[in-house]
Amino acid sequence: MFAILGPPFPKHSGGPVQLGRLTRERVVFGRPIDQNQAIQHPLAAVWMRLQAAELMTYKAAALYDQGRPCGLEANTARNLAGSAAYEAAFRAVRTHGGFGFAQEYHVERYFRESVLNFIAPVSEELILSYVAEKALGMPKSY
Q1: Nearest in space to 84 (alpha carbons), one of 20, 142, 27, 10
Q2: Which of 19, 20, 32, 89 is a Cys-bridge partner for 114, taking CB atoms 3.0 to 4.6 Å apart?
Q3: Which of 16-30, 35-49, 80-94 shows the lowest mean pLDDT across its residues?
Q4: How far apart are CA 42 and CA 27, in angstroms?
Q5: Helix segments in 33-106, DSSP class H
Q6: What per-residue confidence (pLDDT) applies to 12?
């Protein structure tokens, strides 16, 4: 399945792990900012959402490899990954502060590109309509 769709997250970007390193290196008022719950909690929540999206992606891939229907799982993975990527990029901008918009850090690009997950290749609304129909048995609305 990854040969067709590609992996859900750019593994080379570092993502939350790279951001975790920044929080250890950045010192404010004499201590690393990763000692603050205001930094820890949002990053931990993003990490959990990324893990959930990755697991759903693997489930969809396993179903696909078995020749079983996987549309519901693939759409769920796509939606989870897109929203998790946006939240991760948003938190990265917030954590970087003013440097979040500096092109040297690439955070502004990740944030800008994460918005595309809501509109391309399939909009979030179409995914939600599909899930409502297939998982919840609601009438087709598109």
Answers
A1: 10
A2: 89
A3: 16-30
A4: 18
A5: 37-65, 71-96
A6: 39
Query: What is the end-to-end Cα distance of the chain in Å, rounded?
Result: 26
Lowest mean pLDDT among 10-24, 52-66, 121-135: 10-24
CA distance 29 to 17: 23
Tokens at residue 21, please?
């390193």
What letter would DSSP give residue 32? Answer: E
Q: Which residues of 26-38 are buried (b: 16+ CB within 10 A; e: fewer)?
A: eeeeeeebbeeee
Angle between helices 124-134 and 71-96 (to 10 degrees): 140
> What are 74-122's pLDDT values in tens digits?
999 999 999 999 999 999 898 888 878 888 878 889 999 999 989 888 9
Query: Residue 31 — φ and ψ, nearest 5°?
Result: -150, 150
C-alpha dist (Å) from residue 38 to 26, 104, 110: 14, 25, 22
Of residues 84, 141, 72, 114, the one with CA closest to residue 106:
114
Do residues 59 and 77 touch, judged by C-beta distance below 8 A? yes
Residue 70: phi and psi, rounded to 5, are: -140, 15
